[in-house]
Amino acid sequence: MRVFVTGASGWIGSAVVPELIDAGHQVVGLARSDASAAALTAAGADVVRGTVDDLDALRDAAAASDGVIHLAFKHDIAFTGDFLGAAEADRRAVDAFGDVLAGTGRPLVIASGVAGLATGRVATEQDRPTIDGSPTSVRAATSQAVLALAPRDVRASVVRLSPTCHGEGDNGFMASLVAMARAHGVSGYIGDGANRWPAVHRLDAAKLFRLAFEKAPAGSVLHGVAEEGVAIRDVAEVIGRHLDLPVSSVAPEDAAEHFSWLSGFLGLDAPASHTLTGELLGWRPTHPGLIEDLDKGHYFVAPAA
């Protein structure tokens, strides 16, 4: 099938594209720069130039495809003070896809997150996010809008990703923790560090997106979770060992100063299950877990001067 992928040259998208191509699909990727276009061409994909704000380009590409995997999100503005703006742009893109795909039975798969779904227990695919008007809940509302496309004959599904989709080349949360440990001379965690993050290797996540595109029933909620919950203190200890730094607790009231933008995420206790996802699609993660991946050492290669 012909698959239109946004965010195709990003961290997850650059794994999804070869996963789709290896399975025999034709991929058309959205590229906003010459570098992204070149990377997609080298990977064997066709290219549509534009951004998630180019709604006409999104509609045309979706109409010419057998379905859409939407991974793009304006992280550049989301984590520099305008998360609401990024979430609103995401919603406009999803609404554009929904209008084009309505009545076709074609798939629309989008990325969302598992963090914050449940408090004090393991989140499952049956949990729904709280919509309270906050910037983060605006993005969560987009996932609900996608599921609401199912009665309009769109084979819509939502893949909720773990807070960390790790692997070699990762520049996300784990790489940021390593950088902060270097900068402070200590590998820190908040409080007792017993809070847990689900985790998934990016290659396992890529396979889940392919399976969702190929066969997820309309209205499916899927969890890109390989490990139910990894204690943040265990992560800090691995980082400290590899960097030969002390490992220490950071008091909650000092977390914002120490961890900057990451502090709001790092203290979350957000265990999540993928049991229903496995039963529905036969998805079985096979790549290294988070601690094993950290121990491979690629996160600790010293940055170039």
UniProtKB/TrEMBL annotation:
<dbReference type="InterPro" id="IPR036291">
    <property type="entry name" value="NAD(P)-bd_dom_sf"/>
</dbReference>
<dbReference type="InterPro" id="IPR051783">
    <property type="entry name" value="NAD(P)-dependent_oxidoreduct"/>
</dbReference>
<protein>
    <submittedName>
        <fullName>SDR family oxidoreductase</fullName>
    </submittedName>
</protein>
<feature type="domain" description="NAD-dependent epimerase/dehydratase">
    <location>
        <begin position="3"/>
        <end position="216"/>
    </location>
</feature>
<dbReference type="InterPro" id="IPR001509">
    <property type="entry name" value="Epimerase_deHydtase"/>
</dbReference>
<dbReference type="Pfam" id="PF01370">
    <property type="entry name" value="Epimerase"/>
</dbReference>
